[in-house]
Structures are given as structure tokens and as C-alpha cells.
Amino acid sequence: MVRSLTGDLLPCFLKIAVTEEGFCSAPSIIDSNSNGNPLYSKVINPTLSPSHLQDLPGFTRSVYRNDHALITPESHVFSPLPDWRNTLGAYLVSPAMGAHFVMYIAKMQESSKSGLPPMDVERFVFVLQGSVTLHNVSGIGQTLMVDSYAYFPPNSEHLFESYESATLVVFERRYAYLENHITEHVVGSTHQQPLLDTPGEASVFQLRKLLPTSLAYDFNIHIMDFQPGEFLNVKEVHYNQHGLLLLEGQGIYRLGDSWYPVEAGDAIWMAPFVPQWYAALGKIPTRYLLYKDVNRNPL
Ligand code: UGY
Ligand code: MN
């Protein structure tokens, strides 16, 4: 302890000026931290970007709430996908959260093969990295590259093979049958899909839909593109569920009362009626892929 100029007893480290004049003989813990920065300098120069905290062991931006979840890449946990060969999977959305669908990343390694979904479950697959060969029932192979996708109606035979490696994002859902309507097998590529109108959004973002919009389909997959600085006009609250994968760019996602910095690689689950809003920030455009259930009476 030292006595301050006003006569109070103070611990050494609070009176830098006094210690510099030699009153405090304790070893100096006051000048700098181990990085050579002034002690406590972070308090007055706070880290504004949470990504700097990524060096902190245990830090994650992932969040799990009852009406939304943000699952960031450092939280992905992969394990062998049952029924697939040489493939690791990380489920990012599942019914355990309250969702009626699953969304998972499948990492196909050398000489890998897909398995089939359970009975009455439809499947949508989008290639994120590498390429896969899709064999149809007659055994004919078709190569799907990055940005290509395929949809399989419930109970339809199909097989993916990867000879080197490939990463896929997969959506599956128990099909909601509708009398006199059936879905068909679809194969396509994002860039082949036309740009669509975005009512209520005054052309703020670009929208493509990867599946037909006809009644037979009980969900669609949207590809949404935003230039930096663009944001959703509508502060959406709706009955539909979403599973989202940010493919490129960064920005702020509002989910309920929380505002999250997000970037490419992040996955989001949105329960029905969760308030949702996005603004694209940074220097490059944002692209995200979005599952949305459609065409069915919510009753
Ligand atoms: O179509 C949608 O519901 C979409 N605009 N939602 C979203 O981007 N969160
Ligand atoms: Mn929405």
C-alpha cells in the first residue's frame, strides 16, 4: 500500500504516477501484459469485432434458443452417417430442435457412397465442394459440380458416389402428401434458374428458387443474393420454418430480439414466427441458401 496525495491508502497498481516516483517497490505488474500492450488497454480499446475472440479457447458464436439457432463452423461435430459409406455428417437442424426437417453437411471422402433416406422422406442435395456422380435407377451416371443440386421424391432409388471428395448440404423431410399431386426428380444448377420478383422487397435482393413452385412440392430452396449494404425490407414474421446456410459474404442477422454477426459457413434454424431480418455488410456480396416449407395448410 502507498499513501495518496490526499492521504488515502491505495494499492500500488492504482497509483502509476506515484510508483514512477519510486514510492512503490512491488515488482512492476502495471506496465504491460505479456503481449507488450499497456495493461488493461483492451478496456479502453475494446475489440469491436467478435471474430477477434475466435482465438479464445472455448469461444463460439453458436447459439441455441427455443425459436432459433445459429450454428457456426467451429461447433460442427461430424460422425459417420449411417447407411452412407466413407461419409461424415454434421446435423445442423433436426426435429430435436422443433424443426420438421433435417439439414446436414455430408463430407464424402474417397470412394464414398450415399445411403437412402427413410421411407416417405424426400431429399434435396446441393454440392458445396468437389463433385459427385449421381446414378439413376437405370444406372446412368451424371456429374454434379459445385452449385448443382438434385431433389428426390420420397421412396425414389438413387445413389451418389464420390471418387475423390465432395461436400454436400442435404435437406430431408417427411413428405406431406397431397391427393392427386406427385413431385418429380429434379436436377439443376443455381445459375440456370431465372431471377424472380420479390414482392414487398422493392427488388432489394435477388431471388432464385431451385424447385418448381407447383403444389406438389411441400418445400422450396431459395438462393438469395444481396449486395453489401442491402437489407431485407420486410421484418418478417411468418408461419414457415427456415434452414439457412450462408454461402458467401457477411452481415447481421436479426433473430427474435438478438442481432448476430454472421459470415459464410454459418447455419441458422428459424422456427415458425421468429422475427427475422438480414443486412449484408462488408465488401463482398452475400449469398444464402434457404429452406422454406410451402404449399401446405398449416392446420
Ligand atoms: O422468403 C422468405 O421467407 C425469406 N425472405 N426469409 C428470409 O430471408 N429470412
Ligand atoms: Mn423468411
TrEMBL record:
Cupin type-2 domain ranges (all copies): 223-289
Gene3D superfamilies, sorted: Jelly Rolls
Domain of life: Eukaryota
GO molecular function: ureidoglycine aminohydrolase activity
Name of the protein this chain belongs to: Cupin type-2 domain-containing protein
Organism: Mikania micrantha (bitter vine)
